[in-house]
Amino acid sequence: MDAQVKPWPKSAASSHVRAAPKPVENRPSREEAEAAVRTLIAYIGDDPGREGVLDTPKRVIGAYEELFSGYRESAADVLDRTFSEMGTYDDFVLVRDIAFTSHCEHHMMPFTGKAHIAYRPVDRVVGLSKLARLVDVYGRRLQTQEHLTSQIATAIDEILKPQGVAVMLEAEHTCMTMRGVQKQGAITLTTQFIGSFRDDANEQVRFITAVRGGMR
């Protein structure tokens, strides 16, 4: 395949698409972050000097570096590399069942699920793994599911310039299943349709049918 970097006007793209978020001013040091974890351990009633949790602050901050790596990545870098050899292909491309984990920005508790992404390409396609990476770019930040759905769809639309984009997310939120109403198994579903998927109800039906396994 002929891999190319597709030129597109980054200045015209949404800020969350162009680049990774700017670090906050006066970002705490790692040592300060670890101290904050020790404070939380004491707040919940445990002894931060106890042997079992002595190294917990270091482990927690190390885990945060991985869980929130999306703050150091951008959609533009993930989707820039495209392939021009499409032949006569003129239907949508669907990648479904992309497992993801994110964190609710209201309680900082995880929500996990699957993303289903389709787009109808024009001239070029993007590597399938890049769509999965895009989900992680936005998922590995503090999020709401609605915003995560919108950001994924917008990034694909603005960078790839397809005829249409369809995104569906299904997720279980631990802030709802482990606390509050504590309704285990409750699933939240969000969708966003752009272009041909928004304008043509039949395309929406085809997308949903394919996601639900009708094309197996």
What is the fold's blueprint, element by element?
Blueprint: E1 3-5, H1 15-18, H2 30-43, H3 56-67, H4 75-79, E2 81-83, E3 93-104, E4 110-120, E5 125-126, H5 128-139, E6 142-143, H6 145-160, E7 164-173, H7 174-177, E8 188-195, H8 196-199, H9 201-211
CATH class of the largest domain: Alpha Beta
Rg, alpha carbons: 20 Å
What is the beta-strand fraction? 15-25%
Q: What is the H/E string?
A: EHHHHEEEEHEHEHEHH
Q: How many beta-strand segments?
A: 8
Number of helices: 9
Gross morphology: elongated
Write a short abstract of this structure.
The chain is an alpha+beta fold and about 220 residues long.
Q: Which descriptors apply to this entry?
A:
alpha+beta; GTP Cyclohydrolase I, domain 2; 2 domains; 5-stranded mixed sheet; 3-stranded antiparallel sheet; 24% strand; elongated
